[in-house]
Design goal:
- Strand 2 and strand 3 form a beta hairpin.
- The chain is globular and about 35 Å long.
- It starts with about 35 loop residues before the first strand and ends in a 15-residue tail after the last helix.
- It is an alpha+beta fold and about 100 residues long.
- The chain has a three-stranded antiparallel sheet.
Length: about 100
């Protein structure tokens, strides 16, 4: 009998906050999974401090779990679609497919 235990989690796909990270666009089933703001920043091309500011102001639907802000890909897509062209608007940021 082999007493070795293996873990199916690939640690290379974990963010520094132990949230699974994806190297592909989220599928429709994954649109409601929780992602950290650092992961959202990486996936969508925003600065994580900017996303935290949006979360604190209520412009990005997010919640704080302990010291960590989390959101969902769906909420990121909703925020991106709701942006207005003004100021330093970035037209290179789009919802993930």
């Amino acid at each position: 009998m082999n007493n070795e235990h293996t873990c199916s989690n690939d640690s290379s796909l974990l963010s520094p906050y132990n949230f699974p990270m994806s190297n592909a666009s989220p599928s429709s089933e994954d649109k409601n999974r929780l992602i950290s703001l650092p992961e959202a920043a990486e996936l969508y091309g925003f600065d994580q401090r900017y996303l935290a500011k949006l979360a604190r102001s209520g412009r990005l639907k997010a919640r704080k779990i302990g010291d960590l802000w989390v959101t969902t890909p769906l909420d990121m897509d909703i925020y991106i679609a709701s942006r207005k062209k003004r100021g330093a608007y970035r037209d290179d940021v789009h919802p993930l497919n």
